[in-house]
Sequence to fold (197 residues):
Amino acid sequence: MMNADIQRLLAEIYAEGQHNDASVQEHSRKMLNLEPPTAQLLSILVRSSRRTNILEIGTSSGYSTIWLAWATQTVGGHVTSIDRSAEKHALADTNLRRAHLRETVDLICGDASEIVARLTGPFDFVFFDADRRSAPNQLELIVPKLTPDAFILADNVNSHPDEIAGYLAAIEKLTQFEHTIIPVGKGLSLAYRQRAD
Fold:
């Protein structure tokens, strides 16, 4: 079970994000943190399937990153997390240090498509939670860098259906993956490819 100190930190980060998002108009300055039930579900998936090489696109303040890092560090895993905002990158760095999980995460600041193109992987768990319109291109770049047994997830299926439609169409074309939508938080797309026997 997650210790009380990390639980309190996560509650604080989430509350600060909610306050921030209610008070700023500019989209790029919003934190848009993952909903807590969705974050917990990701954590359960990571721990139960012993995921060790996680890629997150969209770090923001590090709220979901902490959930993922805590989950994978229990099995000696690692998270690579990408965000284009230098300000959010610095905030996530601070929050991960407060959670004593900084060594579990490789934070990369920059354009996700450019970064994904040069990452080598292999990744066994990918989570999209950033620019939904560029996600199909990033998905195409990532698929060859996945382990045979891999999860691909994306948030905001129900909250931003028009923006994520291209991504969902791209996922449906990956016939080796089973795909479903989970009605948790803002709607979670979950795709899974089972290792061939």
About this structure: The CA atoms of residues 33 and 63 lie 6 Å apart. The longest helix spans residues 4-23.
